Structures are given as C-alpha cells and as structure tokens.
C-alpha cells in the first residue's frame, strides 16, 4: 500500500509535456556534463600542448643563444686564423727579406775579398819582380864594387912596392925630385886606402840591407 503523494503517484499525475521537458532537461544535463568533461580534457590537452610549446620555446631560445655564441666563437676563431695567417705571412716576408739581405751582403763581401785577393796577388807579383830586379841590381853593384876593390887593392899593393922602392932609393939619392915623388906616391897610397875602406863599407852596407830585405 503506497501512501498518497508518493513519487509514483506524482509521476502518474504528470502530463506528457512535463515528461518531455524533464527528459530534455536530463539530456541537456548529460550533454552539459559530457561537454564539461570534454572541455576539461581539451583544457588539459591545451595545457599540455602549451607546456610543450613553452618547453620548445625555451629549447629554441637556448639553441638560438648557443648558436649565437657558436657564431661569435666562430667569428673569433676566423679572426684569430686571419691574424695568424697575416702574422705568418709577415714572418715569411721578413725571413725572405733577411735572406735576400744576407745573400747580398755575403756576395758583396765575397766580391770584395776576391778583389782584395787579386790585388794582393798582383802586389806580390810586382813585389817579387821588384825584388828580383833590385837583387839583380844589387848583385851587379856588388860585383862592380868587388872589382873596384880588387883593382884598388892591386893598385895599393903596387904603390906600396913603389913606395918601398922609393924609400930605398931615397937613402942613396938625396935629391929634391926623389923626395917629392915619394910624397906623391905616399899621398896616392893614402887616397887608395881611403877608397878601399869606403868600398868595403859600401859592400858591407849593401850586404846588411840585403839581409834585412830577405
């Protein structure tokens, strides 16, 4: 036995329009619930996508910064390489210039030394020829002096013998002419002795000069 006013009695008492409205209301509620669920799902997916987008943006920014740094490093390395190449080229040019300068200096010194050696050789030949001529002249002069000395010594010996003869004759002959002749012979002998002494000194001086020249 059901009490009056129960759900069944109320349900039985509603008209079809109310039932239709009720069903539509419930359908709308279910649809709304489904939409809310879908919306939450979409929001969740959107949040996930947004998070991934943010993460990608962060990664992109990091890669962009890293790429910029790498570009800067590359530019610095390229600049350093250019500077190093320029410095190396300068060193090469300097080395080539130094090499050319040293070669020119060496060639100039070699030519100067060769010129000096040629001049020295010429001087040596000229000195040798001069020495040979002077030695030949000295030998000739020495032979002439030796001949003069020999002749003077022979003349001196002759005068000495003549003087001795005159001295012997002077004791027997007391004439004036004999004394004068004796004095004349004595003066000639003294003159010859001086000439002999001078010739001997000249020969000795020539010998000393020749020894110093050797």
UniProtKB/TrEMBL annotation:
It comes from the Eukaryota. Residues 1-27, 173-196 have a biased composition (Basic and acidic residues). Residues 1-36, 169-214 are annotated as: Disordered. This is Uncharacterized protein. It comes from Sphaerosporella brunnea.
